[in-house]
Amino acid sequence: MDITEIFAKRLVKLREDNNITQQALADDLGITRQSLSLYEKTDRTINIYLLHKIAKRFNVSTDYLLGLQKEPTNDLDVIAVTEYTALSKEAAEKLHEIGLHNKSTANSDTLSALIEDVDFKYFLALLSAKMYDDNSTQRIVTGNAQIQIKVSSLTNYEIGQSIAEISTRMKDKFEEKYKTVDERQEHLFHQEMYRLAEGLLKENRITEQEYNQIIAEYDNGNFEYGLGRKV
């Protein structure tokens, strides 16, 4: 697929996803509906000025319109994550949400341990294989080994067994890191308190000097400092 085909396909998708008619978009861009139709059919090559207008109209990058970027976003952090991991924009944003807002529930901690597990690829492969309803054979990677599994022979037992084995290793990893459940809860509480202080600073509810004083107290283990005042 060449650049003009990629551009045309993505232009049509953006227009249709936003429920915009050809005439309405043409009016916004200051061109005729016939001209827009030619761009969408790859019968005419877009010029840089109109390309810039379209990018601004849909709040996407020109790189996305030209096929140099996978996801339609201008967020550089999201772009970096999607390019590095090949995840979707929605997946990258969900991971960000987990890491930013759910520290107290240990979701980010748990997700990290799951992805780091030696059999995570195997678990993903089992889930992928379950999506097939034919008699094809899938190559599954488990640890450093590769095995062949016939899709039709898979049952929920394999997936359940894989989850059980991974969760056991995750539990062992947490126990090794935190020694006790209480220690892990304390660690998560500390993370939450630091996050709250950072939030107050960003919202300008405390000064940088007050923030530094709170953090200094927290570093000394005084997590009650500020609780009755601002934090």
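The above is record 1. Record 2 follows with the same two-line structure.
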Amino acid sequence: MEKIVDFATITVLCGVDSSYVRGSISDENGRFKIENLPQGTYLLDITHLLYKRRYIPVKIQEDTELKSVIMEENVLELDGVTVTANIIQYKADRYIVSLQNHPITKGNNTSQVLALMPGVTNEENMLKINGQDVTQIYVNGRKLRDRNELNAIQADNIDKVEIIPMSGAEENASSMGGVIYIKLKKIDDGGYYGSASGNFSTLVEEGHMGDNLNASFNYRYGKLSIYNYTYYGHFRNFNKYDISTHYKEKDTFIDMKTDGKGWSTSFSDRLSLTYELNDKHSIGGNFRVGVKDGSPVNNTQSMIKNGREEQIDLSGSVITEKLRIREYRQLSIMTGE
């Protein structure tokens, strides 16, 4: 028996380079409409929490109407739990997705799972909702300052996610855009959980380029909840490029070569304390320390040649930058439900 697939994310990609063009979400009848799309060839990327991803090539002409798209159920089991379609709720200004015991959270971090939410896409590590930038992300009421924190939070610790395509009066008017609220599962008294992840990057010719490590930890003692996030990064300054310019009026060529070297190191730690006043209200504070050191060096050489490719002049410069940033601050005092 065929089922209507509502809240599916439809992303229109360019048929030439697969770059993002436009997006939409299917309604309660499984229908979607994308207007003002120029004629041409595109690729539809259709995703849903309960179905396998589908790519459909389409050729758009005037008022093109597509045939019904058949989605294949993503048959996943998790300890005998049955996943149903009512995990997604729609309200006037937002979507609410319940992820308690959902199979997609198994083995994934929060950043990976957010890209599967209704209307959400991940474009070059930038989250967007219906093509608009996600300007703010909150975790248990804490506004994230570092998006790397999402990689350190395992998705199976998420209770629910609220997705607001456009922020309203409750948000800062200067940062209009998509907002995501993430609520983690409540820990029992004495309970804790955490996770850690890291990356190591290297290039065949250049060698070691950088590495990073991030970790998060949650602990509950009585009515007090403690959350800590730590990040360490060590990256190589790799700024290598050549620029050639031809000045026709003087028949002169200028070749400029830049070679950047050096390393930079950064460390940050965020501590969040929340005390539960009653079942509906709590109070808490955030504290952050950040350190960044580095000494990147940019070596630039410029060669001037005439129209016969003969060298006229040669000059160079070496710019050394000393980075030393220290940040210690209390971010906020939080109250609310």
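Confidence is low (pLDDT under 50) at residues 77-83, 169-174.
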